[in-house]
Amino acid sequence: MANTLTNLIPVAYRALDIVSRELTGLIGAVNIDASADTIAKGQTVYSPVAPANTQTDIAVGMAVTANVGQTIGTKSLVIDQYKSSSFEWSAEEEFGVNTGARLENIMMDQMAQAFRVHANAIEAFVFNVAKNGASRAIGTTAGTAPILADFAGAKKILDDNGAPATGRSVVLDTTAGVALRGIPNLFKVNESGDSALLRNGILGNLYGFDLRESAGVQPVTKGGMTGALINAGNLTPGSTVLTYDTGTVNTTGFAAGDIITIGSDPNKYVVEVGSTSTTGTFTIAAPGLRTTIVNDAAITVFGTSTRNIALSRNAITLATRLPKFQAGDLASDRYTITDPRTGLAFELTMWPGQRMVKYEVSIAYGASCIKPEHLAVIIG
């Protein structure tokens, strides 16, 4: 094999085309920032978040009214995933399988597996960020695929939170996808007005959401907190930090991503920052409580369930870049290859050794829920 990647680029793109057909709906549904070259590994970048404002009566007079200060919040993003996958060929191995199409086909499969592990890992990483950062959840029964009313409920959550009406997606697991394909109102052409689902299995658009499927959407095990009660009563709408006591806890307690209900409040809130103490505080995602919560209201953790994700594109930012290298390193060639479907850029590198060559596919990335108000969970 020549010591250049040029003749491998067509092989790499064919391999990428195979991988890009796997179910990576979340990557396509979030905001991808592929210009994160200024972010070093482990460095935290902060985005400003303006607080909600208030309305006051206009005072007529010659004196200027006192200023009203604001505390600007922040959301952080860290490039903390620095990953590579690789495979090697020795001269004798290449000779053993002969040169030409046979070797090319094997290498295409190897590259497909290299891209695949990255795509699946990034999808799972974004899902973890999403299920821990959602504002609220909708749905009634764990282990049951969503019904149409759940999609309408997710739309209401995003609408009530002021999320943009455009760029919305629902990312489902394949079980929910099967259930949707079985709803007569969606596949009967005379009722849906479209034959795409019936003829091609395309999920299309529902209640303003582009419907996507993802292998990364998985069941989430609930935390182990039981018996906890609100310890500081009369919490007002908008509160996010909640104090509790009398809890019985195992090692997980309130876990990030837990879905909870409080007292008679029908809303299902998502725990953003958990707690493993029998008493203390935990944080729910913005915009916080929807109703006033009184003292000693019981906190119930919803059961283990699949977390389908409804979001506006700007809810989550996925930042990616190529791993840095030093001038003078021993790589003989490197090439940037971009997945035309997801927009992710990977570094393909050739490292020569003694009578063998190592091929490496690398990417650095991080993700953060920038606007939890624009994200909801549909329970499955």
Characteristic key phrases:
Elongation Factor Tu (Ef-tu), domain 3, 21 strands, elongated, 2 domains, single chain, 13-stranded mixed sheet, 6-stranded mixed sheet, 9 helices, alpha+beta, phage-related protein like fold, 380 residues
Secondary-structure map:
Blueprint: H1 9-19, H2 25-29, E1 31-33, E2 44-49, E3 73-78, E4 81-90, H3 91-97, H4 101-133, E5 136-138, H5 148-160, E6 168-172, H6 174-181, H7 184-187, H8 189-192, H9 196-200, E7 205-206, E8 209-213, E9 219-220, E10 229-230, E11 241-245, E12 259-262, E13 265-273, E14 280-284, E15 299-301, E16 305-312, E17 316-321, E18 333-338, E19 345-352, E20 356-369, E21 375-379
Parallel strand pairs: 1-17, 5-21, 6-8
Antiparallel strand pairs: 2-3, 4-20, 5-13, 6-16, 7-8, 9-16, 10-11, 11-14, 12-13, 12-15, 13-14, 16-21, 17-20, 18-19, 19-20
In short:
The protein is α+β, with helices and mostly antiparallel strands and 380 residues long.
